[in-house]
Amino acid sequence: MKRIVMGILAHVDAGKTTLSEGLLYNSGMIRRMGRVDKKDSFLDTHNLEKDRGITVFSKHAVITKDDIRLILLDTPGHTDFSTEMERSILALDYALLIVSGSDGVEPHTETEWKLLKDYGIPVIVFVNKMDIAEKGKEEILSSLNVLDKQGFVDFSLPKEEFYEEIALYSERAMNFYLENGYISNEIIQDMIVDRLIYPVYFGSALKDIGVDKLLAGIFAYTRNQDYPSDFGALVYKISRDEQGNRLTFVKITGGEIGVKEVLCHDEKINQIRLYSGKKYELLNRAEAGDLVAITGPSLTYQGEGIGYEKDFKNPVLEAVLSYGIILPKTESSETFLPKIRRLEEENPSLNVRYDEKTKRINIKVMGSIELEILKELCKERFDVDIDFDEGDILYKETLTEKSYGIGHFEPLRHYAEVHLRLTPLPFGSGIVIDSEIDSEALDKNWQNNILSVLKSNEFRGVLCDYPITDLQITLVNGRAHLKHTEGNDMREATERALRNALRKSLSRNEVIILEPYYEFSLTVPENSLGKAMNDLGIMKAVFKLDSEKQNTVVGIAPVSKLRNYQLDLASYTGGKGRLSTMFAGYYRCKEQDKVTKETAYDCDSDFERPTGSIFCAHGAGFAVSWDEVYSYKHLEEIGEAKNKVSTWNDEGDFDTEGFVRKEREEDFIGTDEIDDILNRASGGNKKADPLRKRRVYREKLYSDTTYKSREARKSGNYLIVDGYNIIHSFDDLKIFAKDNMDGARDSLLRMLSDYQGFRGMDLTVVFDAYRVNNPSDRREEYHNVHVVFTKINETADAFIARYTRENGKNQNITVATNDNLVQQLARGAGCMVYSANDLKRDIDAAREEVRNIIS
Q1: Counting Cβ atoms within 10 Å, is residue 397 exposed (0-12), middle (13-18) or buried (19+)?
Q2: pLDDT at residue 550 in the model
């Protein structure tokens, strides 16, 4: 059986639920189409959703036809529930992205597209509301290029034009078409899975126009994934049914499992449910590709990997607002805490924090609508009427320069010393943890203990007690005692070392506050445009008029300034104004002195998280303050930071000219490029219309073209390829490597040599030495490609990370790899990143260009 899980994603009001109804109706699964305004849609089953007319919780609907089981996963479209949408992406084989023909690509659509790209999900696009759209198909198709530079194909074209269009994006498809006069469904399926093309369908879900063609296309152009025989599953959701039974929703990614078998944590499965709307079918077994709810296990958690699957721990989206919960007098914080923890289990982004001293419970949310939903859920589930305080922005702290910290913990009969180096990273890098010491200096078990402490805790800063971010924390030295060191001793020393480094930076005024920013689109009546632009100026926003939409301003502004603007907007526009926002990242806070004064935090008075250390003399432990630790330390400092390595400019990262770095389309944007960002937000950077592209295609296919010299194409760019990672990411090379790794390596080098010859960049391929017969540090030349075999005990990952860190600021470097950590470090060093699919797509495109030019 073909088992397909397809998520439906859209900006709010794009018609997502209506299209779901249309697909179910056209498949014969329901007798009539429900409507959101009539509160009778098949998937919006909760009263909260019916009352508000929006999707809050992701839900399933099953469509069966012959040997096909299609599970539609309806996801929330409102930005306040974006984290629920992102969790759903974990379970998807394909995504159906809905774009309103009348409104075009909205900011939240771009957020969804970026997530789908990051997770590598194939996408089919349905342009809805074509019955009221002012633009035609070609213009709308061209406007989609704001999401990706190419690949959007109108699947309603006449056959000849359709095949010609498809052939543009793959050498395999081109060759097949030239030989056979058509392109097989198998090739089209593969191109969709590889994200070489994105099928686009047009219609109106409300009027049931084009929905049947979309459904037929889904059946024809999707295929099963290749699942391993070993059992694997990923928990993407925790929920409860109407009777209160705990449900673990899992995507089976390998093998199979049955009722009464152990899922994980030594807990057995009671039931396997295949949900469709409110109803479900009981299954005896679940197989690879199935999306099911399991009862029985009580210890599972969202993002948990089971079997061969690894845990998913790093969501892209995060809440930027924090609120304290106000409880009624009849409910204590101690009795309410386990109740809100239950909701946190279902929605981990709430990130519940409980202060033992103040008995205060704080949560994180995306916006005001989520707060309202939480209030109603607490009343419905627990019969508790809660409220919230005024809330606060979730600020963060980071450093502008390197710092070095020492933590020593030596009460009587205890011993541990830890040295850490903190290095600031570019915006959005998060926390990167590594070690530079070998097992001879400190036993590997103790190193793992230290690294585990650093990875498993959210450490807070010393300026305002905000979480720290964008730092590389490196273990550089440490010591344990054979008899007196225990696990908790290392924890104490590690935490003190980190706090010591932060406190040292604070004394040098090298700690800064970061605040969250929104990218926004603001549409108002013409007579309100002046007022809107004046308000944005007061907010210190950077903005410009949208060239594609009337009376619309796009830009970027602090969350602190925009969070309550909806009320003002509704007031001065009479309810006709529209504000759309999406999280843009954290940047330097322009009101740091004000924020610092308001928090009034004193790290030297925080005795629960000390910045000093404990040493021992004459049989007794004594405390040493942060600034005197260096006089008492037992180990020498290793390469203490004294040189300036700031990643920040003198004016801060954001000013009236723009901001230093912002990730967009897998690129970092410089200070002088704010206009480019805003152009993209307003639908700029468009490709030529598809009709012209097809004319160019015919000209290249049937006429002689002078070949441009390689020298003319040279770009001065550098491409670093993670050799074995790419081999195992290219299907043909992966198969070849099983029998002949040397042959696979040579095939990759030949392919890249041809690629370099056409593109003209400086290309280096890095291989781990341990896979080569002679594991010595050496560099070779393969025609026009540099080849590096790393030295003994050094991985390609480590070589690439070191190279990009040292050269990323001075060279225009792109790193080609599918390794998430290497991608993160490369981006952190200011480099661009190619996934394996990106590299394969450009190699294919280069081959196609050569073929067209010489034919």
Answers
A1: buried
A2: 79
pLDDT of 747 strictly over 60: yes
Residue 680 or residue 788, greater confidence: 788
CA distance 831 to 33: 49
Element (H, E) at 342: helix 333-346
Helix or strand or coil: residue 848?
A: helix
Residue 407: Cβ within 10 Å count: 30
* Residue percentage of the chain with pLDDT more than 90: 46
3-class DSSP string for 559-596 = HHHHCCHHHHHHHHHCCCCEEEEEEEEEEECCCHHHHH
Instruction: Give the Cα separation of 742 and 748 in Å (integer).
Output: 10
Q: According to the model, what pLDDT value does residue 33 have?
A: 83
Closest among 435, 424, 400, 401 to 472, alpha carbons compared = 424
Rounded to whole angstroms, the Cα distance separating 838 from 612 reads 49
Q: Which of 72-86, 149-163, 184-198 has the lowest mean pLDDT?
A: 72-86
Task: Give 196's DSSP letter.
Answer: S
Residue 184 has a pLDDT of: 96
DSSP secondary structure, 424-472, as one string: E--TT--EEEEE---TTTS-HHHHHHHHHHHHS---B-SSSSPBB-SEE
Say how many C-beta atoms besides its own lie within 10 A of residue 698's C-beta. Answer: 10
**pLDDT band at residue 49 using 50, 70 and 90 as cut-offs:** low
Higher pLDDT, 155 or 314: 155
Q: What is the pLDDT of residue 213?
A: 96
Contact criterion met (CB below 8 Å) for 312 and 303: yes
What DSSP string runs through 536-554? HHHTT-EEEE-SSSTTEEE
Average pLDDT (58-64) is 90
pLDDT in tens, 408-461: 999 988 999 999 999 999 887 889 999 998 888 889 999 999 999 998 788 999
Mention every residue, 6+ apart, whose C-beta is less than 8 A from residue 439: 447
- Tokens 């550098």 correspond to 718
Rounded to whole angstroms, the Cα distance separating 627 from 89 reads 48
Q: Is the pTM of this model over 0.70?
A: no
Q: Which residue reads 């190193």 in tokens?
A: 447
Do 763 and 748 contact (CB within 8 A), yes or no? no
340: left (phi over 0), alpha (psi -120 to 50) or beta: alpha
Q: Which two tokens stand for residue 320?
A: 């930027």
Cα separation, 231 vs 751, in Å, equals: 35
DSSP 582-651: EEEEEEE-TTHHHHHHHH---GGG-TTS-SSEEEEETTEEEEE-TTTHHHH-SS--SS---S----S-TT
Range in 48-62, 215-229, 341-355 with the lowest mean pLDDT? 48-62
Q: How many residues does the chain have?
A: 855
Under a CB-based contact definition with an 8 Å cutoff, are residues 42 and 20 in contact?
yes
CA distances from 220 to 125, 289, 435, 600 (A): 15, 18, 50, 62
**Residues 241 and 212 sit within 8 Å (Cβ to Cβ):** no
Residue type, 851: R
Q: How far apart are the C-alpha atoms of 646 and 424, rounded to whole Å?
A: 7
Half-sphere exposure in the Cβ direction for 310 (13 Å, CA):
3
- For 467, half-sphere exposure in the C-beta direction (CA atoms, 13 angstrom radius) is 16
Task: Name the nearest CA neighbour of 472 among 510, 437, 501, 431.
Answer: 431
Mean pLDDT for the chain? 84
Higher pLDDT, 394 or 649: 394
Lowest-confidence segment of 338-347, 387-396, 800-809 by average pLDDT: 800-809
